[in-house]
Amino acid sequence: MAQRGSYAKGIAKREEILTTALDVIAREGYRGASVKELAEAVGLSQAGLLHYFDSKDELFTAILRKRDELDLETYRTEPDVDPLRIFLRVMRHNADVPGLVELYTRLNAEASDHDHPAHQFFAERRATMTELFGGLVAEGKRTGRYPADLDTASFALVLTAAADGLQTLWLQDPTIDMASELERLLVSLGALSPERSTTA
Length: 200
Fold this sequence. Notes:
This protein has helices at 2-28, 35-41, 46-50, 56-75, 83-94, 98-110, 119-143, 152-172, 178-188.
C-alpha cells in the first residue's frame, strides 16, 4: 500500500510540474524557462525536478505532450464542430502563447535526430494528425465534398507542414495571422467553404 501511495504521489507531482511549466513558459517564454526556474516554481531543487524526468529534453517533451492533451480537452467540447475548425481555434490560441510555440518549433527541429527524446513524440503526433485529417478526407470523398482522387495522406502531411511552417514564420514576424493564412489554404483546397471561412 505504501508503494502504491508513493507512486500515486509521484504521478501527481509530475502532473503538477507539467501544469506549472506550461503556465511559466506561456508567461515567461521559452528562454525564461530554465530547469532552475521551473524547479523553483514547484518548490523543488533542480535535482529534485529531474528526479521525475530523465533529462531537460524529456521534461520539455512531456510539457508539449501535456499541452496537446489540454488543447484537445479545451477545444473539442462541441462534438459537432468540424475538426478543421477546432484546428484553427488551436492555431489562434497559439498566438497567445508564444513561449510554447517557440518550445514546439525548437523541439520539432531537434527531433530530426532519431535519438532525441522528442523524436518519438513528433512521430506519434504526425501519425495522429494523419489519421485525423485522413478520416476527414475519406468522409469527404464519400459525400462528394472532395475529389475522389484527392490523396488522403498527402492532404494530412501538407496541412501539418503548413501549420508547423507558419508557426516558425510567426516567431520571426508576429504580424502574420497564422490561423487566417491556414484558413485561406483550407478554403483553396476545398476543405472549408468560403462563406464559412470568417468564423471558427
